[in-house]
Amino acid sequence: MSAATVPWIILFAPLVAAALILFFGKYSKPLSAGLAIAAAVVCGVLSWWLFFQPGNPGPNQIPWIELAGFSIPIGMLVDPLSRTMLVVVNTIAPLVFIYSLGYMAHEEGYWRYFAGLALFLFSMLGIVLADNFVMMFIFWELVGASSYILIGHYYGKDSAADASKQAFLVNRIGDFGFMLGILMIWMATQTVVFGEIFSKTSLLESQPVYLTIACILIFCGTIGKSAQLPLHVWLPNSMEGPTPVSSLLHAATMVAAGVFMLARFFPVLEAAPDAREVIAWIGGLTCLAAGLMATQQNDIKRILAYSTISQLGYMVLGVGVADTPDVPMFHLFTHAFFKCLLFLCAGSVIVAMHHEQDIWKMGALKNKTPITFLCLIAGTLALTGFGFGPFGFSGFYSKDLIIEWAIVKAPVLGWIAVLTAGLTSFYMFRLFFVVFLGAPRTESAKKAHESPLVMILPLILLAIPAFAGGFPFVSRIFFQLEEPENVPHVVHFALLAMFLGGFALAWALYRRAEKDPLSIPLFANRLYIDPVYAWIVKTFQDGVGWLAGWADRWVVDLFVAQIPSKLVWACGYVLRFLQFGNIQAYAFFFGAGVIGVIYFLIAR
Amino acid sequence: MTPTLAHYLLVSGLLFTIGLAGVLLRRNILIIFMCLELMLNAANLSLVAFSRFNITAQATALQGTVNYNGQILVFFIITVAAAEVAIGLAIIVALFRARQTTHVEDLNSLKF
């Protein structure tokens, strides 16, 4: 086993597992779960092994499509970026898979679920390991397809079927831009392989407008996949899937792909400052808007979903402002662990509440589910970036770093990010107080019980990186972080004030609340973006449908059916008068015809 | 004056034209049938004539080795034509039995 073959094993192990589950999983529940978990564990072990392999293994490709002047290889790019990402994905995936054992124990479609999970993991690993844009795009689409399968797991439910369809279609919009961007880069550089594109950056730089447009188009892929404004609508709806899927989707396998792709493409993005400004603004606005929306949601998973969008906004903002892709990747790293933890905690709460997701029907779960409670505290403190000075939870380090860069490079966005930190603190502690403190609001909240060990164990294991993942001695292993210069000290105090302010406000409002004392329809209705989209889609679709129907009836029918059929009928009508019924006339025409033929044969 | 190929062909052409005119103009189906035979024999006559004059040319060139293939072919044609006439007459008899007429103008049901 060498460093050259290991990436291939990592990539294909989940695919093999998915295929085997499809064939044999129907017959045995433990078999399907076992295959998926085994593949994920193999990936995990090999990823850690690969991470600590010294040196750069160099190109590792097989040719796939070879045309004159154009070739697409299938290759493994193993550099620090993909090694770190492999570790993140393949550490979280086995834990989520194991957790699924408990969560899905009594659910339908067990083997279908595990096959989907394994396929999902395979797709994401393909994106991480891809050494060229075409391969990345293929796996990018595979992620979309497998997320469609998993979000629509309960396809019998209309809302789940709609959500998976929406996730798929909204992603297509972004992917279309992504594809155009890839084509533009290819047109300029004549290659799709990352290493070769990066070596031609100076060529791209000589066409700044072209490069800016290409980078923004490629960023469209991120807008779709990482749920940035204005294509964020699918992510909250994707909560219709089973909770472990949401956890995997939000932590490691789907939404992270967009940020990872930007980090991968960073050497070229660096040369397009205008595009990065657009990226920074979209990231900053997304993080604020999603934070605002999260404050008024009542579904425990939706709160976390909006929080994910908000955190992804931070990461995209980081891509826009930081000098190194390690800054957003660091936040992706810490976020993956604590968001996975939070979702798994939410899943544990949901199981404890017998599949109730409305936080206003919970309450006082602190004593009923103590381990979940403690783990959720760790996740919440990590997400809200609790800490000051040299010490804090993991999110503290990564989020502060992005905010520092934003303050230095784009002060307006920096202060938006600081404000969002306060919102984060507010909505997370709102969730925390309502679910775990106060009085039980329903009967099932009184009877809630702690989840089984297979679900608790991943929580505990994830709580460790959620707490410690950001410490400098940890981040030094994975990243080469750069601190911006001249950061005003007031930022650190402002962030602490924001954290405490959000906490205090949530404490004051929700500590004993029976129902939500705040009612802000604008935020509860998600800034009315969804209904506007629904209206646009409906109007547009109905319009196009009407037009297409009209064209089909009056244009296509006219030229394809009506006119030719009438023409043939008319010709037949005219020609049938030649049928005189007189045998001698026929003989005459026959003779005339023969003479005509002879004339043409001889005279010409 | 010995007849040349042109004379034979002229007679053949006349026979053919008379036959064609008969086919196109006469109304009685029996006469039309006879005119058809006339046309066939016009073709036979030109075939025999071509063969005959070709034999003379060959005999001069090849010193006695003579090719009678054309003459023999005409015998075959005449034989086959006899068989064909038998069938044609049988059809006409059957037609007369069905329609009580041999007039082509009355046989016009195959039309629009």
Account of the 3D structure:
The complex is a heterodimer of chains A (604) and B (112). Chain A is mainly α and 604 residues long. Chain A is built from 26 helices and 4 strands. In chain A, the strands form 2 sheets. In chain A, strands 1-2 form a two-stranded antiparallel sheet. In chain A, helix 3 packs antiparallel against helix 4 (110-129), helix 3 (80-103) runs antiparallel to helix 21 (453-468) and helix 5 packs antiparallel against helix 11 (243-253). Chain A starts with 5 loop residues before the first helix and ends with a helix. By secondary structure, chain B is mainly α. Chain B has one domain. Helices cover 77% and strands 0% of the residues of chain B. In chain B, helix 2 packs antiparallel against helix 3 (69-99). The longest helix of chain B has 34 residues, at 29-62. The interface between A and B is medium-sized, with 11 and 13 residues.
Short structural summary:
The complex is a heterodimer of chains A (604) and B (112). Chain A is an all-alpha fold.
Ranges of chain A where pLDDT stays below 50 over 5 or more residues in a row are: none
Beta-strand portion of chain B reads: under 5%
Overall mean pLDDT of chain B: 87
Helix proportion of residues of chain B, in percent? over 70%
Structural class of chain B: mainly alpha
Order of helices and strands of chain B: HHH
Measured on Cα atoms, how large is the radius of gyration of chain B?
19 Å
Q: What distance separates the N and C termini of chain A?
A: 80 Å
Strand percentage of chain A lies at under 5%
Strand/helix succession of chain A: HHEEHHHHHHHHHHHHHHHEEHHHHHHHHH
Name the strands of the widest sheet of chain A in spatial order.
1-2
Computed Rg of chain A: 30 Å
